[in-house]
Design a protein that fits this description.
Aspartate Aminotransferase, domain 2, Aspartate Aminotransferase, domain 1, 14 helices, globular, four-stranded antiparallel β-sheet, single chain, 2 domains
Length: 436
């Protein structure tokens, strides 16, 4: 006899954003991979952060004696000020906001799900997502036994994701009584930019239905349309009466600051009671990464002007790759649909118009990881991408739009990203020929 795992563990499979990497690691034929499956940025951190990282033994460093202590659960005061400083740099008032440091945005997600939703079968409330939604929200809800509901966006032939009708969203809310709505203004996975006016309309639904509004702002300032930054912190009491006390944002060092491995994020709210309870819940984890907090704390002292210069530099870097990829892949695979490069660092590629019936993006991704290869300059190379089915919350018997969709992250070097359209097109054609 062997001890049994929980039903949750027995049913658990790797996240869609890690699956290709895990399967490719088992390969032994010498093929190289360009990994665009996960948003693991490859750019250097901000100079102020690098300065601290390279000088951990300086006389001003708390680690100069080789001792790494716990911090307070709420995090270092300087690090919390750093997150508020960057919110302020986008033009939003931070008066009255409470911040706690988390283990990246991921712990912030988990704390939010635990804090505003109830377990399945209880009288408490589900989490409302806007599909396609970042897959880890679904994973965190499943881990904690919290129910989720979703309303879907549609990827149109033009590459634009259409927002769901607000009346439809309201009907779903009235029927299911969710505790909170999650919005990702600079959207992962879709690359959709949800502008400030749309945030305001969604906020009105939250106030009218006594819900929390959660804004995942990991990619704030990474937008490529003619607009101002969008944020929950621009949805004020004057604009949406009743919004005060129900706003929460999830922050992270991972993306705009190129520091995924620091595992440092923040949960920011204007609700003092939620903040205190969230810190209390996090005491079970003791504290977040002390060294990561110290490194990012440098951003508390960077001027707003310098921060804005950094944002411009990041936007220019990513948009050039997004635009080049979109044009190149469309020329190689006429009829393919590619999401409009409006925000974040992702594109959704949909082959519904060019694939033979029965195409399954998950099977294609696994084939690329385990068998597919293209000779590029004398080197056998494959491409790792994320299947999109795991980003949709669909019921049994319902069609999953992600069956023909894949997410591509702009995380490799510019030289490698230039190879991605060629690799995708050739691997897709090989795979379709194999299916004949």
């Amino acid at each position: 006899m062997k001890p049994k795992m929980s039903a949750h563990f027995e049913a658990r499979t790797p996240s869609a954003i890690r699956l290709a990497q895990i399967e490719f690691a088992k390969r032994t034929d010498g093929t190289k991979a360009i990994n665009t499956a996960i948003g693991n940025v490859s750019l250097p951190m901000h100079p102020a952060m690098r300065e601290r990282m390279f000088n951990l033994n300086s006389k001003n460093s708390p680690f100069k004696d080789g001792v790494v202590k716990y911090t307070a659960t709420v995090g270092l005061e300087e690090t919390n000020k750093a997150f508020l400083n960057i919110i302020s740099s986008s033009g939003f008032n931070t008066d009255g906001l409470f911040s706690q440091i988390t283990d990246g945005g991921s712990q912030g997600m988990e704390l939010v799900v635990v804090g505003v939703c109830g377990p399945a079968g209880s009288q408490e409330k589900p989490l409302l997502l806007i599909d396609a939604a970042y897959t880890n929200y679904k994973a965190m809800a499943e881990r904690t036994g919290r129910p989720i509901i979703s309303v879907s966006r549609h990827l149109e032939e033009t590459g634009k994701f259409s927002m769901p009708d607000l009346d439809e969203v309201n009907r779903l809310i009235e029927k299911n009584k969710p505790g909170a709505m999650v919005v990702i203004p600079y959207d992962n996975p879709t690359g959709h930019f949800i502008d400030q006016q749309t945030l305001i309309e969604l906020a009105k639904l939250c106030t009218n239905n006594n819900m929390w509004m959660i804004s995942d702002e990991a990619y704030r300032e990474l937008f490529y349309v003619n607009s101002k930054p969008a944020s929950i912190w621009g949805v004020t009491e004057e604009i949406v009466p009743g919004i005060t006390g129900r706003r929460i944002s999830i922050e992270t060092t991972s993306k705009v600051w190129n520091a995924c491995g620091l595992r440092t994020g923040a949960l920011v709210t204007d609700n003092k009671d939620f903040h205190e309870r969230s810190v209390a819940e996090a005491t079970a984890s003791l504290c977040s990464n002390a060294i990561g907090q110290y490194i990012f704390g440098a951003m508390a002292h960077v001027s707003l002007e310098e921060l804005k210069h950094w944002y411009t530099k990041q936007r220019t870097y990513y948009f050039e790759m997004l635009a080049a990829f979109t044009e190149d892949l469309k020329s190689r695979l006429p009829g393919i649909i590619i999401s409009s490069p409006d925000a974040s660092i992702y594109s959704v590629v949909d082959v519904r118009n060019i694939a033979k019936p029965g195409f399954d993006a998950l099977d294609f991704v696994l084939w690329c990881a385990t068998q597919g290869k293209v000779n590029v300059n004398g080197i056998n190379t494959t491409l790792l991408v994320s299947p999109m089915a795991g980003f949709y919350n669909v019921g049994k018997g319902e069609r999953n739009p992600g069956k023909t969709q894949m997410r591509i992250a702009y995380v490799e070097s510019p030289e490698n990203m230039k190879k991605v359209p060629l690799l995708f097109a050739k691997l897709f054609n090989q795979y379709e020929k194999k299916r004949d």
